[in-house]
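User: quick one
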Amino acid sequence: MKKYWKSIDELRDTPEIQKLKENEFAELLPVHSVIENQAENGIASSRRDFLKLMGFSLSAAALSACEAPVVKSIPYLVKPEEIIPGVANWYASNYFDGTDYCPILIKTREGRPIKIEGNKDSKITGGAINARVQASLLSLYDTGRYKEPLKNGQPATWDECDREIAEKLSSISARGGNIRIVTSSLASPSAKKIIGEFIQRYSVQQAGDELTAGAEPDSAAAAMTQKFPANNVKHIVYDAVSCSAIIRANEKFFGKTVIPSYRFDKAETIVSIGADFLANWISSIEYAQQYGKNKRQIKHFQYEAALTLTGCNADARIPVKPSQYGNILLGIYNIIAKETGAPVLSVNPVEFSGKIEKSAMSLLGSKGKSLVVCGTNNIAHQIITNAINQLLGNYGNTIDLNNPDLTRQNDDSSMQEFITELKNGKIDAALFWNVNPVYSHPDGKDIENGLKNTGLTVSFALSPDETSSAIQYVCPDNHFLESWNDASPKPAHYGLCQPVISPLYKTRQFQESFLKWMGSNSDYYSYIRNYWKENIFPQQNKTVLFETFWKKALHDGIVEPESLILSNTALPVVETNNVLVEESVGKISGASEKSGRFEIVFYQKTATGNGSHANNPWLQELPDPVSKVCWDNYLTMSPKQMEELGLNMRQGQEEVADVVELTVSGNKVRVPVFPLPGQTYGTVGLAVGYGRTVSGKVGKGIGVNAYPLLRLEDGAMQYESADASVSVSVGKYNLASTQVHHTMMGRNIVRETTLEEYSKNPKAGNEETVIAMHGGEKLPPALVNMWKDHEKNDQWWNLSIDLSACIGCGACTISCQVENNLPVVGKDEINRSRDMQWLRIDRYFSSDEKDGDLDKMEIPSDAENLQVSFQPVMCQHCNHAPCETVCPVAATTHSTDGLNMMAYNRCVGTRYCANNCPYKVRRFNWFEYDKYSKFKDINPAQDDMGRMTLNPDVVVRSRGVMEKCTMCYQRIQDGKLKAKREGRPLKDGEIATACEAVCPTHAITFGNALDESSRVAKLKPDDRKYTLLDELDTQPSVFYLTKVRNV
Amino acid sequence: MFHESSIREPLILGEKDYRQITEDVISPVEKKPTTFWWIAISITGTAALWGILCICYTVGVGIGTWGLNRTVGWAWDITNFVWWIGIGHAGTLISAVLLLFRSRWRMGINRSAEAMTIFAVMMAGLFPIIHMGRVWLAYWTLPLPNYLGSLWVNINSPLFWDVCAISTYFTVSLVFWYLGLIPDFGTVRDRAKIAGAKIRYRAYHILSFGWSGRVKDWIRHEEVSLVLAGLSTPLVFSVHSIVSMDFATSVVPGWHTTIFPPYFVLGALFSGFAMVLTLTIIMRKVMNLKEYITVKHIEYMNLICLLTGSLVGTAYLTELFISWYSGVEYEQYAFINRATGPYWWAYACMMTCNVISPQLFWFKKIRRSIPLAFFLSIIINIGMWFERFVIIVTSIHREYIPSMWTMFHPTFVDVGIYVGTIGIFFTLFLLFAKFFPGIAQSELKTILKISGEKYKQNGVHH
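Assistant: Done. Structure below.
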């Protein structure tokens, strides 16, 4: 046997070594020797020693108690197989709330969902997502949710509710009573089938019959078109913000009751009349993603009254009155008809300084590659829009009727019918899912009263709302993250939704409740599986086994059998077109301006939408991309008009907005007025989705409810009115805004050029910055600095932001908020300019004064040539960082991979770094946001449920500490570790910052600039590249690409 | 013996002899405080208490109780800091620089000026501490050895320079002041012994450090005074220069200015003399020291105010010129915004109080009028506060990126703390005036025969 030895002594086995070997440890700790020696010498530890020791340990204990509170953590006793603590699991699912459809990926940590991002495999959205879908995560952990079923407002058991509801339904059905199921638009084919079966079950002709499974094989499609044989049980599809006119127009025009799929990515010219398609119109996530694909090639005209996000991005935006929309459409139609040889209509021509001609000629110039959309819910408008698109040959190219959008099926007239019946007491049972008509319908009061006299009322609301609080049985639905579900946003596009957490409360999916009440024994999981096996599995031929197919569907979240996607071929010209068009001309000519009245448009804010998310503090605090106001709605008005009415235009912390009384068709509300450049003179705008009276602790009582001001016309809900009046100031109200200065003051901050200039000179608008030296020579800033450069080793993280692609939607801001545990601070703090968002989107209005008069430069343009620029700004990670030098305790330093780091636990909070930051991206923790009572109701981190959204990889900062963008360092670290574990170099695109990961238009690119093959390294030499405030030579790691407008 | 021209006004009025000076200066310490003193201290004490409560509120809840925001990270806190530290400078100038220059008129006012310095520096030092988000970690700004070798202060940071400058300044000023007090404490002690006031004797016995009044004591006293005066002299210039570098080394337009060190030092002396004027005018009235703090003293100080005020005015104009001359749009805008932006009133206030008002001192009648001097000294103090406010707030509230432009609105806590420091300052000063000899009587006695009215008149008769 081989012998190993440690030293020569050991080899020789000297006596010293032998002695040492007796003890396991070569040397005793000195403490022992002291005690032993004392014992040997007969001296025991003295009282003094004891006191000394006790004093020391006591003070040590006391000192250690000063900080680091004890927090109990409980380990898994039996670890679930799929959970590795510290490692995130991602699950694919789908989101549909009646307005936004989005295939998503859900990040879970230790079994709790903490972030939602887009699914890049989807052919519809391609990974795009918006703020609302991301923020829907928080509603899962909303402590205000219904925690159990309620009967007349009192807690009840599911058994009790099931029994009573089923009994009541049967008795109503037996006597032929009217049952109405009111839902929002449904995307789920299996849910549609269940509703179909439910209708059959309780319809008079089949009452009492036993339900046989699969009795109606294609009831889903039938439910969609709502052509049920039953007359006493009806499914009414009701959307708070309706687009039923498009469906009706297509029905009349093409005989198809659908909304087509629009292809903004194939269009070269887009003309939008009042359609906010980037933020709120139909499938806006899909459109935003398409729009971003070739933004620079698009020529986009926008005719609208209130400035929308889409209008901000338009190449030419023409402020018009809503009453002129129809005439503009007719004007465009006539020019195109003249050129294409179609019959010209006899109408009064409208004139917008040649803009209509320009748009029409541009449309004609890209026939078949153009798109005209109209955002009004007016059938006549939609028919003319269809006619224009048909003349341009857009059907089959940019508009796809063969693969329609199935996410909207609402019909305003059937809802109206329901309300009439309800008022007349003809309804015996009403069931509501994902709708809140008491709040969102102008006749909400009538509905509320009618419900009181209805025999059976059931709501499936997730959390209390105006409708569910007027209802007998509340059978709370699961949150979508706790639910099985499916979706079919388009034919041959299927999405499967899976629960990522077991239900937090005693709630039950509404589909399952329906199954229960029909007496079915199957649970919804088996039902949906069965449905997929019977209906969707046969549509594909890639997998043979259903099990494999199912698992893949669960893994991918989407199934898109390509073979089944119909070709988008042109439809034959419909003969009756001209009659329809003539008819519409009559209707349009009838609507005219009323002198002396204001015209009003009702719109949805990009963050809060139709109001169903009102209780979400993340969305309430996401500044509106256009006005930058949060936590309120307000009347938008042209600054010129405000001046005439003597209303306050300079709004800030102490300068409060004026409140006026707005009257629309006899209904009055009091609302603050906000000056919005770009708002057409003579018009005002008001966002719906505010003024909730029953909501959680966050959403209640914010803003005013605009829904009661709406009215129905021609069977469709109208979001414009020409009959509004505005009083003089009747009070004061504080509006909180994250940005109170609106122009760039002639500074070179957002660099921009026109496509024309750019094609001549790619450096147009991005002239090199030089510094004039004393000798007269002009040098680039980098040659004039006195700094030593930081060493760069393997990585130098850079972030590129393409200002041409950015649409300013704010998805990145919310993503950053969720990823980095940013607090919600509430209206009062926003009002004090203490927003905590690390990534803000600066919005600048152009000013008519180009250079010179500074006072005038402060005033945004109020004319037709108003231009809007968006600029996302986060920490620029300067390589010559002004913040790093001034920190007295070196809490902010530079990392070896080129980032500016912030050591929170070293920070003492002098705020010098923030003062010295030219970009103003540093955020100070003014309070203990997760504990201080002021934020109790608004900051989700204050309650135990809300804390579940916190990202465990990111620390929650304490008060008195500076914080800022870290370029998602936790993600960088995660990616680095993964590569290291797998023993390979990092791949470009493997690490994505939270903002990059969600950007619908791919405006943000992150990567290692030292890796020559990376996307960011390739963007760096681009002629459009510039760094913000480069004259200071801070050498940021974030760079921008010039905005190119196609003017 | 020095000789002073008989044309010069006497610095000690009335029929004074050594005994009389001792009596005049020391007796207020021995007597019960006057009613006026009680009224004054109850007012200042209330303000002080209010300020302390506001500080407690800030520390307990967070800096959010102030009016600051993401753009304006410093406002009243640092304004007050610079204001107070500036005020302190006059004391050092009087006691150190004027000592070196052997200006005799300083003797009537140096004691109170030095006390003012100590208290002002205390008030100034308070702000950088409480303005920290985590006050309880303020000691991290000190270069303390620790077991993490790499954890050290950032030597590059002007805030660290501040820490060094202010702590040095405070220490030297305190020692210097106390040194001057020792012989006078000895006098109080000795008189207490004769009067049989035991407690007073004990207290002043300790305070006087066993002063014996022997020649050897005096020699050493004089020597140390001189050394400390030599040490203090550069501090007069260095401390405020360093404070100004908080701003001058930054990238903020309006802060990033090389003129700042001399400009700040001049401003500091200007405001400091204004505060000495305020205090001594009150003291000569309240403590009945009109014969020691004469109109001539007031006139001298007014002349210094005129000089420094004019120099500060020149600095303002230079700043304006340079911003235009630089050709940098941000720099130019910073000054246009100061003068015409939303804070124009602060700028106008600064200009009126600091540049125009001291020009009135060209008129002899005005500079020798006690009520007018008092009024103008207050005006100058207000103006100098606004100067700091203008520099700090109006520069950062509208910096490079217009989207981040905001306004600053103070809260009651901001105001409370400021008023509180004024309260604490005056409370300390009143306590000083009651318990400490308010005039350096031992020093003053050295000029009695040179500059005393009685002796001067005698000289004329001879």
